[in-house]
Queue: 4 jobs
Job 1
Amino acid sequence: MDMDPVARLKSGFEDFKVNVYNKKPELFEPLKEGQAPTYMVFGCADSRCCPSVTLGLQPGEAFTMRNIASMVGPYDKNKYTGTGSAIEYAVCALKVSVIVVIGHSRCGGIKALLSMEEGARQLVSHCHFVEDWVRIGLPAKRKVQTECKALPFDAQCSVLEKEAVNVSLDNLKTYPFVKEGVENGSLKLVGAHYDFVNGKFETWDAPTPPPSKAVDAVARLKTGFQNFKIDVYDKKPELFEPLKEGQAPTFMVFACADSRCCPSVTLRLQPGEAFTIRNIASMVGPYDKTKYTGIGSAIEYAVCALKVSCIVVIGHSRCGGIRALLSMQDGAPNNFHFVEDWVKICYAAKKKVQIECKALPFDDQCSVLEREAVNVSLDNLMTYPFVKEGVASGKLKLVGGHYDFVNGKFETWTR
Ligand SMILES: [Zn+2]
Ligand SMILES: [Zn+2]
């Protein structure tokens, strides 16, 4: 890319603002008041796999988590707070009706899982996190190694891409609120696979009781993919052919899982441009191999393997996670199992806002906190040795961003 990375983000947003946001008030006006997404989507952080692009998901439709290999860990309040907080918020607060877990072709996380030596301490000596994270898919790996041992490595990877999705679907049912929703028919779990080599998308039901009203929601995903295939994928071989061989994104982006905030949409990021993590309130926890393996594995992979040159952390207006952080009573019992524990990452920002802005009303304090929380995440990024090194050597730039969907503004800053 020739353009300066930050200028690229700004021009992407301007394009979105002029051609989409300003032209569809009927879509964006109601979304200013709140989100009521049908889907919760788990997608891989891979820059070629944004579900807003490949499935045509529109702002407001899908609360979206993105991590390495779209994995869902089992219910565990110490190890998987990032995943748990998002599932809890999506199911209990937003009341989504479908959870989709999407695997994909040529996934680096799946390759790491299949090639890692059992019992060996680390795949590559400098990998601190990736192996520990993809371990979530170990049951699938065992299955593939037993049932497909005659297949070559790449073919085993293809099978594992789907079997790992099945492990995530099983893990989803270890969350009491998910299990309850599935049993009473208000929630459906769907597995999916995006094959960017052959331009295919398939879905399957989790082996659970028969679905209720969610059949249309699955059909909607298929139609979305067909539109993408015909209108984009088939028309731009010059973009998609090289991406079949690998990704070399400029950006690593942290964005909120909020259905109104997909950076592929709001910044017009194209397939291959941005390795993208989405979680509650786009928070980056500090270097911690027990508590933040999801985040750590993604930063490590983006910086050490993909060699991104710019990490952008984007906050947004009216963020539910930021509201939860500001309204939570210190010392009071948690209403939720996970959300409060997760948003505590930015507790230092909350203290700062409560002291410096105590005269402001709650909503205004939230607006300040949206940006201050980004600053805490930028500081936390520097606790990762590979990030610190990259910044010191000038190869890596850290950028804060804020998307204001109420006023149609996007701002960036550096620390
Ligand atoms: Zn992947
Ligand atoms: Zn948010």
Job 2
Amino acid sequence: MYFAIPDARQTLDRLMAVESTFDGTTQPIRQWVSEHRAKIKENRNLIENESPANDIPVLNMFLRDLLVRAIKGEMGSRVYEELLSTIKSKEDLHETNYREALKNANYRWGVDNGSKVISDVVHHVQSVLHWNWRVYIERAENEKETNFQSDPMLSIKNISFKLRDLALSNFSPHYAAFDLHVTRVLTRLGWLNYGFPFLGNTDLEMGNNPGNDKNYLFLHRLFDSLSDMTEGNYTPVDIDRILWHLGKSVCGARSRCGACPIGGGCPTGKHRTTDD
Ligand code: SF4
């Protein structure tokens, strides 16, 4: 049996026109990608300016994402709003405030668990990073190919690759936090097969389960490679966003291959003559 794997650059180009709805707004994926790039640029400026005034806004963005526990976006934004109103300066960094913010946000994973994560992260940022976010992001980018496995932040209890990468994705286009909706589309497109060359590294295992560390490292390496295949026209974060929006609009649990611009060029779509 022979099947062709769709070309990364051509496929992504075609997907940019697909309309996707999020938070009540419907627009082409091209627009979602462009807005996300602008957000990373804006956040990156906070880091590159190296002003002490930016330390707390950057910390709050990290905390927002490091506290995510399979919760709905709405709950995540409530935690963020509470962090912003409670932690405004370095003088506000104490446990009473962490607990109050989480309690007000009805943090679903529990105030004790959440405040422990915040305390550990704050301690790490103060005593290991010395508030030097720029050096931290530079190091992450230098070690992007191996998913920055040497990051001391990963030794904090309950900080997984996925949460750390979600936080990094605010500042770097090389880190995406993969979810099952994205990896389902990736699998249907046949793009996992582009990952065979990486399997000499036994830290990685081909698979599409982001909850498995070896699969996760494989997916990170694969997205880096897909980005290279587009000659950098699409970053790993762009590709993650494009597949996420495709999953939301056309290629969800029930795929609508008839409405997908890839259609017969997709190894799955080729065999799905009706919308399944
Ligand atoms: S053709 Fe079907 S399976 Fe393939 S990406 Fe499009 S919707 Fe998904």
Job 3
Amino acid sequence: MLTLEDLAKYPFSVEAQSYVKSRGLTVEELSSPEHQEVLKRALERVEEALNKALVSVKLDRLDVEIFSYPVAVLMVSLSGDKIITSRFAEAEAKRAFSLLREESPDKLLSLASGTFNWDVKRARLNVGYRIYEFSVRWEDYLKVALGFKSPHWKLINRVLVSGRVYLQRHELARMMAEAIRERLLEKASAAPQLSEPPQPVREGVERILELAKTRVSKKPLPIVEAAVKSSEEAYPPCIKTLLEEALAGKQLPHMARFTLASFMLSIGKSIEEVIEVFRRLPDFDERKTLYHVKHIAGEIGAKTRYTPPNCETLRTFNLCVAPDSLCQRIKHPLSYYKRALRGGASS
Ligand code: SF4
């Protein structure tokens, strides 16, 4: 059973949609002064998406948070702009993920099955340091996981028993966030069923279109983005998995943290870039992390610059995940990276 606060946290849920419907608010009524706050927050949601790539969570006025979601979707849809739509969908998905990954298993289960209609069940399975708390029918899993690029999500790399894929809690949250993103893309890309939106809505749309123009021009050149992306694509599967888990806010054991940090530093990432990745971990402590990363970088302590462990060591720590064909020809994650950059991953 979801509370009113839950509906504000998860305005994409079927329960929140029914609540909005039951209150019978029409688009025309958005012009009235009593709904000004809803319009304001809706606009803010889109602006945050464009400016910060993340929509905040505001739970001081629950109704405003609930109603502003469909209004923001309407504005994005009326803008007819693909970049606004994709940034908004991405930012709302991130907002949802930040809440879902902290959610109780029962609520996650209820949202996953009620809103997405997935066949999800509670489970209890430990493999190495990973705790699988859920299982999902493989067809439902693939509907979302096919959109993920990391080998971590490939069906052959998953624990699959009797047609059910086992998931850690943050993985189920990540799947739900991705499903929200896809739904929003679909919804906001569809032509709005509205001939003449009220004046305040039109003004809001004009404002986000104007904002998008300035934000888009500040984007890094596509060539730079492509270079960053291709360098990450050359990461070995074990490092891709660790990076993905860190960015998903998963608790990582010490050896996993050391491997990820030493790998990133070894390929030329800065201490700040490593800290940014570790910032997502649930127990992040800036001072301690800075100390450890500086230590690994050889800036303090014994002044030894550490490299990541070799594949054999990573295997003994259960950190060798989903090795691919290139893995068979190397003995160290850094060798994998160098070869993959030269184009050896596909051979
Ligand atoms: S074989 Fe080595 S590089 Fe490949 S996934 Fe395993 S540990 Fe990583």
Job 4
Amino acid sequence: MITKAPRGVEDWYGERMYKRTVVEKIARDIAKTYNIKEIITPVFEHTVLFQRGVGETTDVVQKEMYTFLDKGERSITLKPEGTAGTMRAYLEHNMYAEPGPTKLFYVTQAFRYEKPQSGRLRQHHQFGVEFVGSKSPLAEVEVITLVIEMINKLGLKDAKLHINSIGCKNCRETYNEALLKYLKEHEDKLCPTCRERMQKNPLRVIDCKVEDCKKIVEKAPRTIEYLDEECREHFEELQYLLNQLNIPYEIDTGIVRGLDYYTKTVFEFVNEDGFTLCGGGRYDGLIHEIDEKQDIPSVGFGMGIERILYFLEKEGVELEAEEPVALYVGILGKEAKAKAYQLVNNLRKQGVIVETDYMERSVKAQMKYANKIGAKKTVIIGEDELQNNIARVKDMESGEQTEIALEKIAELF
Ligand SMILES: [Zn+2]
Ligand SMILES: [Zn+2]
């Protein structure tokens, strides 16, 4: 008997499943008003896509990917995030040939081999947006306003926008030198992974989760002090636009995000209790990493759906309730079965949520069941009702009964 799923994955059903669909619906509805189109990419991709796209020295690629050889000896990886696959699809289908920008959103599973902990399993779900083709800080503003609207529509506590700029490749050169110099002075206190990373990609030391490393990082040089003119202007324009739009923010020089593809802007939304709800930023170099013939800027963000559900629960936010069963059609006697089912069928065609008896229960048991599933109204269809073409619809809350011709029942809804 195998009745237990592997460690770190979960089933979705019942109320939690319903809540997830509500969250996804809110996301889809907002995306629609921004004219952002949905994209679904495969669950797995060539491993090299993530090595190049997410970055060889990131925690995700070094420690957390589900990578395996398929029967054709190809290295395949279950996607650990949504951006790289979306960008690969953007390139594969020449979406850049259309007038830009290309605005895409996804709702996807993502797989990371991590120690399962509350709110973070090995399979999780993300809603994310990719805004491809624009160099303007207005692209960042668009993605940021979308997140703000999402937080408002979900009814979550206010979360504050934290922004930073980590510069481009050009800025990174001078910054890396300064950072490396600083890190070398403290090398003995860094964790083994960081000591190794330091040489290849010192920026990754900044988001190490090991306490000792965090302490050293606190006093490390900041990217923002090493921006070239273009990057500084970009960051200034972004701040100007946010000010003009009355979007409050805080500059947080500690944010670098855990993925290599970020350039210039990085941002996070942090709630009153200091928890990060979601994050994103600009990644002008990502497309070039995937296809060296292309060089197209882009901006995006990703939001963990489990994380959102966790905060909704923690903050006691009630989502819009699931629509109840509007009518339970009870069946009395074998002869009435087909006719009663016909009525059920007709009502459903009109969009009414209807349930009936498939268990051949007694009328009393059927009413008990209707009550249990929370049906708003009930009606019993038997020989008498069919012969006289009249039935009594009962309101389960008030107990009130309405006599009505069978073909008119639909008018009650
Ligand atoms: Zn720069
Ligand atoms: Zn470390």
